[in-house]
Design goal:
2 copies of one chain form a homodimer. Chain A contains 7 helices and 9 strands, in the order βαβββαββαβββαααα. With about 210 residues, chain A is an alpha+beta fold. The two termini of chain A are about 20 Å apart.
Amino acid sequence: GEESERRGTITFVTGNKNKLLEVQRLISSDQGKSVPFDLTNAKLDLPELQGSPEEIAREKCKTAANLLQSAVMTEDTSLCFHALNGLPGAYIKWFLDGLGHDGLNKMLQGFDDNRAYAQTIIAFSPGPGKEVHLFDGRTEGRIVPPRGSLDFGWDPIFEPLEEECESGDIDKGNTYAEMTKDDKNKISHRSKSFEKFRHFLATSSGEILKGMNA
Amino acid sequence: GEESERRGTITFVTGNKNKLLEVQRLISSDQGKSVPFDLTNAKLDLPELQGSPEEIAREKCKTAANLLQSAVMTEDTSLCFHALNGLPGAYIKWFLDGLGHDGLNKMLQGFDDNRAYAQTIIAFSPGPGKEVHLFDGRTEGRIVPPRGSLDFGWDPIFEPLEEECESGDIDKGNTYAEMTKDDKNKISHRSKSFEKFRHFLATSSGEILKGMNA
C-alpha cells in the first residue's frame, strides 16, 4: 500500500561527514528489511551539560529538536567505573585529557574493583517538544594499563569481559585498542546502541512517521 | 559631589535568602568605606555546564545577565585535586554524591599527592553582553579521612595547609569541619573571593556604574 512507501528524514547532530556515512550504513536495513528513514546531518554547537549520561542525552536531543525543528538523533559516549558509582561517566573526556591512561588506572588503585562499562546512548526525538527515546548500549569490561594502538581515546585501557567476547565469538583478553575493527564492532557498546535504534526504526516506523508529521 | 552619591543594583543569582543577607553584609563596606552597590536576588534555573571552573563561571554569568537584563553576580565552588590535574573541579558535587568522603580519599590512594585547593569564583557582569569579571579565591589544603561535623559537604575531608592557617593566625591541623565558623572565614577560599570582589566594587565603582548605565 501507500503507507509502506512513505519515508522520513532524521537529522544526525554531527559535523563529521564520515560519521554520517557510517551511521547511514548502520541503520539502512534491519533483518533484511529496508528501514524507511533517510539520514542527513547538521553541526550544532550545543552546550555540554552536567548530569547523568541519560539526562545529558535527553536534554541535548530536546535542544537539538527545538533548534532544528525536525526529527533528530544524537550520540554520546560515557565510561563508567563501578567503584566510582558510574563516574567519570559523561565527564570521561575531561579525565582522559587531565590524567591520561596511567592516571585513570591510578585513580582506581585504592579500590578492589577495576570494572567499568562503556556506554553509548543514542537519543531520538521525532520533533520539537516530542518524546525523547533513548537507546542504551553497554559493554562490560575492566580498566587496565594501556595496550594496543594509542590512536583512539580510552580504547587502550578498556578490556571487555570474557563473557562479552564469548557472546561475540572473538578472542578474549584484548583491549578495544588491540582488537580488529570488525571484532570490536561485534561487541562494542556503540554497536549495541545502534542495533537497538535500528530495530526501533524498523519495527515502529509507522508510529514514528505519524509522530514526525503530527 | 553628585557622583559619589550614585548607587547601582546588582542581582545575585540565588534562591537562598540567607545567602543574600550574608553577601549583602560581606560587600557592604571595604576598608571603612561604604560600597555604593545594593544587592538583590533572583532564583534562576540555569543549566549546569561542563568545563573548567573559569569557563563555567563565565558562561553562567553571561547567561544570567542576558536573562535578567541587569548587572549580575554568580558564585561557584570547586574542589581541585593536584594529582588529578584540577579535577574533579566543578564536578565535585557529583563525586561527593557518588563516592562519599571515603571514596574521595580512596581515589587519591594510588598517587603520592593528596593536595587539593578549594576554589570559589565570583563572576560579575555589569549587564547583558558586557564583560564578565572573575574573582578567584583559593585555599590550599590536603584531602584527608573525614574529621569534624559531617553537616557540610566536603568540609570534613579538607584540611587547609599550615601556611594558610599561619596567615590567618588560627590553629593548624584542623579540617574545615573542625574549625569555628570565624576561623574558617579567616582563611576560606570563599572569603578570599569575596574580598577581591568587594575591593573591586569599592575601587572601581565609578567605572562600574558607568558600565551599568551604558
